[in-house]
């Protein structure tokens, strides 16, 4: 029993013309004999072509839907259009050459009689990536870092030609200097030429007579280079820095690529970052919180005075303005430093401390009632 053409293409029976074309292109890429060398691939490719030939043309599709394979086999349909559907097919689709050019444009430049151009002019070098870890304060204030980057540099001995000094290059005998080789492929719809880069000269069209001993004929050699890069203030995790012309060297006099440095910031044991703001925590005694005081706190700029207002409650957040992270690209503008104040409640009191606190509780009328002194301290600090 012949396979169902709709099932072969993986489409529904009410699929549109565009749906059929998309399904065919996808399967043709997968099963074309030049791409798929597995057993049975060529036979499957022929079945896919036959299914597309029938379903892509409205008249033959209508006969197939009504009569099945018998309606579209050779000689079928005489008196009902005969083979007119096949004659109109090439005109309707613009010819199979257009379809195959689209399908196989990704396979080494294979087209229906088309060609690919070899690259003989200057070629820009590849861009490179480096991941760099920096500490917290370097991210805040920036600075200079020395890095080592392995990359390809133009060979100084042959100046990038790949040929030994005093020697030259000859025309490639495989491709006769074109840099391309052409191979004919037969399909159910005719012969198609597949053009690919010449494997002998790698598309250059020339073969070096004597290779440079320094670079082995590559024209470039791998070197590890030391660089100093500038890290601007305010960078963060994932910030990307571009170092121009420090990627791989180009070919045939092409410009070098660029180096992209991706930054990772190590965490700090004291400070955390929230956008442009810095966060930290301090702990004061309950007396400092009740009476207020002025204390020294650490910031990324060094020690700063911080005023603790009288009656400060636990987990109050105090702000040191413009002591945060500089804005990237505008270091004059900085965020704030937000400090969370924790209040330490003593778990043990000596006799004198208890006496004084109980006297204070009496003055405040807090010595009687549930909890005694503990209840008083709890009420003072919101407990």
From TrEMBL:
Sorted UniProt keywords: Chaperone, Cytoplasm, DNA replication, Metal-binding, Repeat, Stress response, Zinc, Zinc-finger
GO BP annotations, alphabetical order: DNA replication; protein refolding; response to heat
Zn finger spans (CR-type): 142-224
Cofactor: Zn(2+)
SMART domains linked to this entry: DnaJ
Amino acids binding Zn(2+) 1: 155, 158, 212, 215
UniProt remark on domains: The J domain is necessary and sufficient to stimulate DnaK ATPase activity. Zinc center 1 plays an important role in the autonomous, DnaK-independent chaperone activity of DnaJ. Zinc center 2 is essential for interaction with DnaK and for DnaJ activity.
HAMAP family: DnaJ
Protein known as: Chaperone protein DnaJ
Species for this entry: Dactylococcopsis salina (strain PCC 8305)
